[in-house]
Amino acid sequence: MLCLTIRLLWIVMASESSLFGMKTSRRLCNASYVILVLAFNMCVLSPIALMHSFPLLLPSTGELNSSTGSSSDCLSLLHSLNYNALASFLLANLCTGAVNLLTDTLSTSSERSIVILMVYIVVFSMPFYFLMKAGLRLKL
């Protein structure tokens, strides 16, 4: 269903651009731009939704919420980023700076930029996942 929605958004955006001659404009924030942003964000978020669909890939924490009495369905990866929130924020800023310094972001192809994003997510999030599993909290 998610893949069908993503494809539909890309088709609508492409047909709107070609049929009506509307170019995608961030400054005008026209319909083509809104559809482009929706389709792109769904493409980036779909691997996360896929991981959430298969709990064997990243098991949930299963914590018990004391106020409601129900268990949390938070992914371990998200819990690990929240466990060391300040350190993850600082590392995210450093990783973003490193990507911006090492890559010519204006002339990078779409395929290469998606690969950079995927590697960025893994390099950024895995240390915090292993720190949480070890029970270590960084105090800055």
How much strand?
A: under 5%
How much helix, percentage-wise, in residues? 55-70%
Mean of residue pLDDT?
76
How many separate domains make up the residues? 2
Determine the N-to-C terminus distance. Answer: 43 Å
Question: What secondary-structure arrangement, pairings included, does this model have?
Answer:
Elements (H helix, E strand, L loop, with lengths): L1 H19 L10 H23 L22 H8 L1 H18 L7 H25 L6
Report on the architecture of this protein.
This protein has 140 residues and is an all-alpha fold. The protein folds into two domains: 1-53; 57-140, no CATH class. It is built from five helices and no strands. Helix 3 crosses helix 5. The protein is elongated and about 55 Å long. The termini are far apart. 7% of the residues are buried.
